[in-house]
Amino acid sequence: MTASPLVTLDLTGATADNVIAVARHNAQIRIAPQVLEELATVRSHIDALASADTPVYGISTGFGALATRHIAPEDRAKLQRSLIRSHAAGMGEPVEREVVRALMFLRAKTLASGRTGVRPVVLETMVGLLNAGITPVVREYGSLGCSGDLAPLSHCALVLMGEGEATDREGVQRPVPELLAEAGLEPVELAEKEGLALVNGTDGMLGQLLMALADLEELADIADATAAMSVEAQMGTDQVFRAELHEPLRPHPGQGRSAANMYNFLSGSPIVASHREGDGRVQDAYSLRCSPQVTGAVRDTIAHARLVATRELAAAIDNPVVLPSGEVTSNGNFHGAPVAYVLDFLAIAVADLGSIAERRTDRMLDPARSRDLPAFLADDPGVDSGMMIAQYTQAGLVAENKRLAVPASVDSIPSSAMQEDHVSLGWHAARKLRTAVGNLRRILAIEMLIAGRALDLRKPLQPGPATGAVLELLRTKVAGPGEDRFLSAEMEAACELLATGEVHRVLEPHLAK
């Protein structure tokens, strides 16, 4: 995989594109010199507080419900080690490499802000791990999304210390000391404040939000395209997608964008033109006619979530935090509610987008509603089952996404002896959204596959240039109509065309500007 351009960490933070570049495309990271200078300056305040007689939370005290205990100087290195070791308490399967890289880069971004009080070596080692392709093993369960993504970040911090579990650039798990030595990195002995600084952030849930947004922005365009293919396949009209029926009458930006996409995708379609006159139907079904209203609402939800994510990217989350004045003070900015809410909101939107796609698909398989298409698009209905069970799979994915749309953020389980008595469960919201986005991609792939077969069955009538380009691409991986054959592999191949961005690339010339 080709590395993305160099990403520079400076005092202004990071962008969503930076996060994607590092997480998914192995971009190398450079630390701006002024960052290291700022870290050294801020660290001098921490050292002064550490040597003072007055206890300061996170520097010379215990943590959480144990914050009342003053820790003697000779025990503070042990305090930091104990914090990370005890908090690296995740269980379950390892989460995906890109998720770990995203949360590490976001934590590095906050360390680089100068508001956490860590020494330059801590940031340099974190960046060194990312640049070397060393990925800590982070387990599925462990974060409550309050006091930060504690367990996931602790598993990462443990690797900085030369402990824990990690994989190399090829994904092979190897001893951490061996990986560090190979990369020319020394284990870090954490000093006062540094343990908390490494684990007190919303980085896991935010990283997954940013990646979901990148995926969903593309999938919204795909949904417009598969909907357009379904309109053609069912001999529907393009007239309900005209601009004057959207922006002037109902000015939701997302709806206008999706309607414009669908109108563009259907432009020049011989299938649509073939029944423009003399068609006795007054209106198409809701799943066809209202596609821009639903996909557009998803787009507007994405826009709101993007605003929240952008604000969170600009944050420097730690507790306690070092203010520009040098004051070190407690706060509650680690609480994940803002991110958790939009993760849940997106899961609702994703579930509904998949639901309307499945309804469009089902219509193409039912001869009572499909406008003269064979039952289940089968070659010999009765002998062949055609696409019958593909819709079953699609319906099962829709059903799962409905379950995943149940909000995580409305739940809360108190922890830390009731000191942390309200938590966001943002990590859980992020994990279920990630699953739902993957399911949506499969749902749209099945609609594309079935609509593509229906379009072939409309020959000699041809689809429009945009939908025709999608069908042509699909036919490079999946054969057209015929006798029943092994369907699972074809469904996976169609999904892969979406996942790799190939379908989106053929649509780009036809997207609304």
Automatic annotation (TrEMBL):
InterPro entries: Aromatic_Lyase, Fumarase/histidase_N, HutH, L-Aspartase-like, Phe/His_NH3-lyase_AS. This is Histidine ammonia-lyase. Keywords: Cytoplasm, Histidine metabolism, Lyase. It comes from Glutamicibacter ectropisis. Pfam families: Lyase_aromatic (PF00221). Contains an active site 4-methylidene-imidazol-5-one (MIO), which is formed autocatalytically by cyclization and dehydration of residues Cys-Ser-Gly. Belongs to the PAL/histidase family. HAMAP family: His_ammonia_lyase. There is a cross-link at residues 146-148 (5-imidazolinone (Ala-Gly)). It is an enzyme of class 4 (lyase). Its EC number is 4.3.1.3. NCBIfam families: hutH (TIGR01225), PRK09367.1 (NF006871). The keyword Lyase applies. GO terms for biological process: L-histidine catabolic process. One of its GO terms (molecular function) is histidine ammonia-lyase activity. The modification 2,3-didehydroalanine (Ser) is found at residue 147. It catalyses: L-histidine = trans-urocanate + NH4(+). It is found in: Cytoplasm. It comes from the Bacteria. Pathway: Amino-acid degradation; L-histidine degradation into L-glutamate; N-formimidoyl-L-glutamate from L-histidine: step 1/3. Gene3D superfamilies: Fumarase/aspartase (Central domain), Fumarase/aspartase (N-terminal domain). One of its GO terms (cellular component) is cytoplasm.
